[in-house]
Amino acid sequence: MKATASVLIVAAALVTAACGEGHAIFVVDVLSFLSASDSAKAYNVPGGIPQADSTVSRQFILPPGFGKSSLDSVSATAAASLENAAGSGSVTFDVFFSKAQGSLFTGTPYLSASSGAVSGADTVPLLPPTTVSLADTVFNTDSLWVGIRARLNTNVGPNMTGHLRLTQIRVRVVLQDKFF
Fold first, then answer.
1. DSSP letters along the chain, please?
2. Does the structure show a pLDDT above 50 at 18?
3. How many Å from the N-terminal Cα to the C-terminal Cα in the chain?
4. Residues 161, 36: Cα–Cα separation, whole Å
5. Contact, 163 vs 39, CB < 8 A?
6. Which of 20, 106, 118, 123 has its CA 20 to 30 A from that of 73?
């Protein structure tokens, strides 16, 4: 999967490098790099558990010279829904970015949404398509980790079961190119 991500991003670099005078624009559909089981996470958490996390992470190898470029702007768009089948509680959906895998799920998430109280069979738009502009040097690198976390908090009672469906995760990076 890493090789595929690298090849696609390099191909995108070749196409987008000429997209503007002195700018390179990269749009990465992060969701397309996740497996079906990663983009639709099933959960079954016993009632009364104050916190249970389910995570997935992927590394993206960016074109050579990417880390030498000046970051102009970054925006991220994410969307997800919660399909609860039984039990009650709440779910928080978070998206993290990091230069290193070890620090991926530390600190404040870049995108976050909470389901609020969920009980029984219910479908909740956990995060409608939301775009945020990001200003962080974490994106000025040759390698980037993307992490997605679902944090479940269950109420006392039956197991909380269902699926968290990721429907969109895209990152758009605009650089002042200095590839050479």
1. -HHHHHHHHHHHHHHHTTSBTTEEEEEEEGGGGS-HHHHEEEEEE-TT-S-EEEEEEEEEEPPTTGGGSEEEEEEEEEEEEEEEEESEEEEEEEEEEESSGGGTTSS--SEEEE---EESSEEEEEEEEEEEEE--GGGSSSEEEEEEEEEEEE-SSSPEEEEEEEEEEEEEEEEE----
2. no
3. 27
4. 18
5. no
6. 106
Q: Which residues contact 13 (CB under 8 A, 6 or more apart)?
A: 24, 26, 63, 66
The answer to whether the beta carbons of residues 97 and 139 sit under 8 Å apart is yes
pTM above 0.85, yes or no: no
- Which residue type sits at 90? S
